[in-house]
Amino acid sequence: MNVIAHLLTGLVALEHLYILWIEMFAWETKGRKTFKSIPGDLFPKTKVLAANQGLYNGFLAAGLIWTFFISDIQWVVNVRLFFLLCVVIAGIFGAITASKKIFFVQALPALLALLFVIILLFSIE
What we know:
Helices cover 82% and strands 0% of the residues. The chain is built from six helices and no strands. Helix 1 (2-25) runs antiparallel to helix 4 (47-66) and helix 4 (47-66) runs antiparallel to helix 5 (73-97). The longest helix has 25 residues, at 73-97. The protein is elongated.
């Protein structure tokens, strides 16, 4: 279970690094292809806004990556639970307010990781 929790946590972290890259550095190129519901003329106008969102996604990724360098397993679990819950909440909010696809792309992988981290939690107690 520990290996699956690590893999899923890493996957969620990588996903958020990818989102960071799109929103901060490729908003007007890859962003146009990814966010097709946004009219093309808005990409230049929303570049700074998107970069701000990308930075927040970077913080989520950084928190999850940090857990791979914590030596105390209880702290690993606690920090992962916090950041995975942040991703789940952001994914659910995005699904409600922007696109249902966000639930499956963002929240569901984090929910799966969260499940395996909770299983890990009960195995260390």
